Amino acid sequence: MAARPTILSLKSVRKIFGTLAAVDSINLDIGEGEFFTIVGPSGSGKTTLLRMLAGMEQPTSGDILLRGERINDLPANRRPTCMVFQSLALFPHRTVGENIEFSLKIRGEARDKRKARALELMDLLRLPQAYYGKNVMKCSGGERQRVALARALAYDPQILFFDEPLSAIDYKLRKTLEKELKDIHRETKKTFVYITHSLEEAMVMSDRIGVMREGKLVQVGSPHEIYSAPTTRFVSEFIGDVNVIPVDVAGDGLLKSVSLKDALKGPVPPKGFTSGHLVIRPEFLRFIGKPSEADNSVSGRLYNEYALGSRIQYQVRVGERVFIVEKLRQQMFTGKLDDEVRIGWDAKDSILVTD
Amino acid sequence: METKGQRVRHAFITAWALAVIVFLYLPTVCITIASFTASRYFQFPVAKFGLDWWEKTFNSIEIRQLLSTSISIALCVTVIAVTLAFFGALAFARYDWKGRSIYQKLILLPIFFPQSVLGLALLLWFNMLGLQLSWMTAVFAHLVWIVPVVTLVIAIQVYSFDPALEEAAFDLGATRWQVLREVTLPVLFPGLFSGALFAFLLSWGNFPLSLYTTGADTTVPEYLYAKMVAGYTPGVPVLGTVSTIGAAFLLIGGYGLILAMRRARQSATE
């Protein structure tokens, strides 16, 4: 993500509700044409942040700059940005065509010009042209998504905001629409700022992801960085199941965990790092025979196994602690439940994080 | 196939429903029958049928004056009540503000006041303020009772209104006024329309408030009562029937209009 000129810049943006800082001192630059996703659990302030960017809330302090110009007090209807709402907010008394053309009608464009633009967008979003006169409430969930996106695109915004528009859609359709949205992003070359509570969803679509927690941005990076180099336990646990072992750094550079007998080999701790957590993704754990087959190993009891489609997940109990191991179906482990098993991992596959 | 038990149950439900309908509508039917009498006195069952009293009623200037007074009051009440109640309903159901829950209770209280007491209270007020009583003071009196009802009717529609619709329109470049005209009003229209029907019909049929506050003017319900107490003629059931049928037409017509609009919107599907 180099050499993209900045389109949207946030400088110490804060939003206080009563005594609560919903959004707390956020600094962020979003690049021209970027697909940027803000991820966080509910109550993390991501919706408030997005509403400030779209002009529906004013920051308590700090600045929002669009191409270098301060837009804090510019109301939503005068910002060159547009939002796709969680409820989609399609106008129920209007047809598909009228919904898409809404902003053009407001702008006073001629009827035939409006219609041409609407049909063009319907083509882009693979909506049949026959839907132009269809009652929007008669459309299916996926079609409504496309109408909402077409309506926003018709405004020709410089930035498109998305407020979890896919959250109410069933899994299979959501997976399709995620990819479609990324394709549309490619086609239109516009800047997309998306919020979701699902890091998995963010991974599929985004150029960069910002993870929010309690009003603060805790990590910003590419999907790969967020997945393979989380800096905090919070971020590492946000996607899928992970193994998190609380550790203290011992004098010899080894890591000590109160719950495990042996010291662990891990990455070299950063300067000043004295205690934290060792994170190992379940796919990096493997069943081994002898301790010498991996940098670290523990032995325990195979407690249960779960089929996750292409992968199988195993739960191994080591004393009080539970380890999760995942294997591709082709590399299925043949052990029996309650067998004594040894699992191991290499130091390079583990990550040290703070709380 | 229905079992015997189900058949018995269905028969019982049908009989019960019929009994309720008869109980509710038989009195109205009786009034209509009573209006078709040829005699000059109150007599029921009717001995001899005729259209004499219908003719007399429609030719009477006094009756026309009554209808015109009642319609004037009801129309004024409808326009003012719907306007006030629309904004009232937005405050009731759409916006969160300090004092909203107090407001929600206060606005509904007048519905439960005994209307005869409310009428008397208003009469005292008008006298104290030195207002000349006429159909216009009655409009005000009706509003005190009807605006809360209409507010409630419209608020029900407002509760199902997604505030994101207004935000979306605003975000797409509309001004506040355009948002109101293009989105809020059309989406809330069914609620406003039924609110208007309520306002008109409640005003049209109101007796206790009119009795105290119309002064020298007389509305249809007031006239019916006065004639019933002194000077009965079969013109009373005639006017009563006209009043009821008028209200029914308005209701059925309104319902038909909403159905037609819904169908027009659905036919846009194909």
Describe, in plain words, how this protein is organized in 3D.
The complex is a heterodimer of chains A (355) and B (270). Chain A is α+β, with helices and mostly antiparallel strands. Chain A folds into two domains: 6-228, 3-Layer(aba) Sandwich (Rossmann fold); 241-353, OB fold (Dihydrolipoamide Acetyltransferase, E2P), CATH 2.40.50. Helices cover 23% and strands 34% of the residues of chain A. Chain A has helices at residues 46-54, 96-106, 111-124, 141-154, 171-188, 199-205, 223-228, 233-236, and strands at residues 6-17, 20-31, 35-39, 61-66, 69-70, 81-84, 159-163, 191-196, 208-213, 216-221, 243-249, 255-256, 275-280, 286-288, 296-308, 311-318, 321-328, 340-345, 350-353. In chain A, the strands form four sheets. A six-stranded mixed β-sheet of chain A has the order 6-7-8-3-9-10, with helices on both faces. In chain A, strands 14-18-15-16-17 form a five-stranded antiparallel β-sheet, with no helix packed on it. A four-stranded antiparallel β-sheet of chain A has the order 2-1-4-5, with helices on one face. The radius of gyration of chain A is 24 Å and the shape is elongated. The model of chain A has no long low-confidence stretch (mean pLDDT 92). With 270 residues, chain B is mainly α. Chain B has one domain: MetI-like fold (Orthogonal Bundle), CATH 1.10.3720.10. Chain B is 79% helix and 0% strand. The longest helix of chain B is centred in the first third of the chain and has 34 residues, at 61-94. The two termini of chain B are 38 Å apart. The mean pLDDT of chain B is 90. The A-B interface holds A 54-56, 75-78, 81-83, 85-87, 89, 91-93, 95, 102-103, 106-107, 133-135, 138, 151-152, 155 and B 162, 164-165, 167-175, 178, 182-183, 186-187, 189, 265-266, 268-269.
